[in-house]
Each structure stands twice: as C-alpha cells, then as structure tokens.
Amino acid sequence: CCFDKTGTLTSDELTARGVALSSEFIDDKANLPADTLLVLASCHAVSRGANGLLGDSLERAQLAFAGVDRPDKVRVLKRYGFSSELRRMTCVCAQGASTVVTCKGAPETLKPLLRDVPADYDASYEQHASRGMRVLALASRTVSNQIDWKGAPREQAETDLTFRGFLCLTSPLKPGTRNVIQHLQASGHKCVIITGDNVLTAA
User: Fold this and answer.
1) Distance between CA 41 and CA 118 in Å, rounded?
2) For 24-56, what is each residue's pLDDT tens digit?
3) Which of 10, 65, 122, 157: disulfide with 16, CB 3.0–4.6 Å?
4) Is 56 in the active site?
C-alpha cells in the first residue's frame, strides 16, 4: 500500500517549532537574530485575502512564528519563486537603505550556495529531520543597490550567501493514522510512504 504523507497520513497544516542556529534551538522569535527574522518575514509568496492570509501552509506557519501579520511588511523587489527542481525560493528585498537577498530551501540544495558552511551543518539538520521535523535552510546576503533586479538571472542572487539557521516545522499525524497502518502491517501488507520530504523526516 502506498500513501502520500502530508495531508494524508499527517495534517496538511504545519507548525514552526523554532530555528536551529549555532548549536542552539531558538523557539522564541524574540531571541532570533535580525538577519534570520528578515529571511522569515520576506522569503515567501503569501498574500492577504478577505478572510486572512492566503498561501502555502508552510509559509503561513513561517510568518506566524516570525510574528508577521502583514505579508507585505517587507518590500520585495524581485521574487524567484519556489522551484520543485531547485527546491528553494529566493527574494530580493529592500531593508531600509540596503538591498538584501533572502533564500530558503532544502538544506542540501542551499549548502553549495553558502560562503561558509558551518562544521555541524549536516549533523544539525539531520538530527532535527530524524525527529520527524521538516527542515528548511535559511540564508541571506546584502547586495549592491545599483543592480537592476527586474531582469537579473536567479544565479546572480543565489551565490555567496550567509547561513541564517534551519527552520524546523512539524505536521502531526491525523487521528487514526497509526491504527490503520498497524492493521495493514499486521495483515501482511507492506506500507510505503511517498513524499518529497527528507527521507529522515518521513522515517
């Protein structure tokens, strides 16, 4: 038996639990560095509708954790949307007098884009993924104000980034999921999860 994970075995609503950074797990936005908060507040495609925020549940959870109630709080100059092939999303935004590139995505896809990779990078995200968390790497860098980003290629933004932490999220099992899987296994059925999540998260 094959099952999709998110929305089938688990809830399709995600909750941000915190950010792993420098051997710490920060579960209160008040303790997050400003650079990390900026990535959370700007790197998304959420919009506001008549009944609240509209968009991906992961990004709504990201904004909720960051304490952002207005998705347009940060002015985005250019958005390179999430790509399932690249497994990341990047935005160029105005922050005061500065222009900042913010990026989030699968840890293994952001790793080659970082200027310096922390020594515990792999061990950190694998540790949280093995606990069933969905893990996204966060990164950013300040860039020149003179660049015309409207026509700039994605590769120009996604380079020489500084690591800003791992955002860790969870989606709980739906009621009844555990019993159904146990009954199927007891009756001799092999159960397989089909997911785009990290294999450690699915396990």
Assistant:
1) 23
2) 999 999 999 999 999 999 999 999 888 888 998
3) 65
4) no
